[in-house]
Amino acid sequence: MSLPAPSAGRFEVITVTLNPAIDRTLTIPRFTAGTVNRVLHEESRAGGKGINVANVLAHLGHRVAATGILGDENDGCFKTLFAANHIHDACVRIPGATRLGIKVFDPDRIETTDVNLPGLAPGGAALEQIESLLLGLTTDWCVLAGSLPPGVPVTYYADLIRQLRRRGVRVALDTSGEPLRAALSAGPTLIKPNRHELEQLLGRTLDTAAAQVEAARSLLSPGISEVILSQGESGAWFVTTEHVLHARPPTVAVRSTVGAGDAMVAGVVSAHLRGIDPAARARFATATSLAALTRAPSDAYSAAALAELGRLVTIS
Fold first, then answer.
1. What pTM, to 2 d.p., does this model score?
2. I want to staple 93 with a disulfide (CB 3.0 to 4.6 A). Which of 35, 72, 203, 247 is the partner?
3. pLDDT-flagged residues of the chain (< 50)
């Protein structure tokens, strides 16, 4: 799979992470609640959905800025990540510590159990500063990702989307629950719910592939041009008004599921920036997610590595 080079521009993508976390992943084979479990491997890193998206996009060669809310007591790992990957740091610092997100990964069952602590409540002044920073930067795409922290109105994403779309910015939205429901009418360019989030949004069970695709189609509108329905190890549906594509990944040795969905969002946005067709876009996004799942070396997002993974993806 040959990809054209990224396009020009001051920033190709800005990501927004209002509720970031320092992700501490504990790898525990055959994890069992209520018993003593032994940790095989431990890893801590700067995280949060938008931060993860920015990181992958930077590895894919795009000019990226990251904004959001960080606690000023423990922002060192975020500074290190941004500097190492040439991500422009446009995050707002507020008093306190960024929350800790504990993830228990069971490599035998390929399951991740999340324990998410509450985030910092940013307050109106910090939110206004985020808007000012975001609307003061020039970009082609904006990714709004993750949950909203305490005290932030559920309509916050919707308000940002309307402002961004008026400026001609395309918006990828990856959130759930009431913030997702409120944002649909604002018309994000694309959304990426998983099956559970889609069922929660529509208030009904979606037991078959046909029901899931039809539900995804129902969310398309003059504003929303693409719905990506992620299905874990079964891959993802990529649904537009003209195409319904299913991307199925191969069986791989999964080292961690943390950030795989965020890598898929990064892959989709990168593919749009490169102007590749829908089938190639689904293949590329799935390959990018596979690179995150396998936690391959630092060159995992090189064109050659992604082409190799992409050849293993089945598109139907």
1. 0.91
2. 72
3. 1-2, 8
